[in-house]
Amino acid sequence: MVDYEALKARVQELAEREWDMEAIVARYRRMAEEGIPRKTLNPDEVLANKEQILDRVQRRAEEYNFLARNCAKGTALALLEEFGLGDLEIIQALSPFPGFGGTGWMCGAVTGGLIALGLYFGSRDVLNYDATGAAIRAARKFMPRFQETAGFVRCPELQESVIFGRYMDPAASPENMAAFAAAKGFEKCSLLPGIGARIAAEVIIESMKEE
Fold first, then answer.
1. This prediction's pTM
2. Cα 27 from Cα 69, distance rounded (Å)
């Protein structure tokens, strides 16, 4: 059962957070200049530090969402950084994905999480059907967990039930976007990238245990 009271309390915490923008920007600038560092993941080490990793990726997804003003970018960037995946062109490609092109059809925390899972489980070889299957299986774990945690996967329901009490539809007009920002939407909506990145990271780490 979704704990809406706990989610709303977390939303308020994010609205009141003192964001260390100097540190967040410096971390991002380093990736922009040097690329996302490649990593050789040690499954035993990752599994032993699972909770620390989940806490870190959640926090960084919240921070990158606030920095980028983009839930899909924030979610994916935290996961790419944590697991040494992809590059910033992938983050660039996620530019229109908040609210699935601003339509509200799908939260960017979901699409950003799916992109990261595709990078981790998928393959550059389009004929590698096993890798495609692995990515889809990971997605089928991720999607219901996100919905079970946040209650919904679409922006209107998430904003109404968890974030604001109503759907603000920020992409509908400059006025809507201004109202969204004034309501601390970029701070409050960081809840969802944090949730999405944490769940996607959990799916990745669980796969290491199964290997």
1. 0.96
2. 16
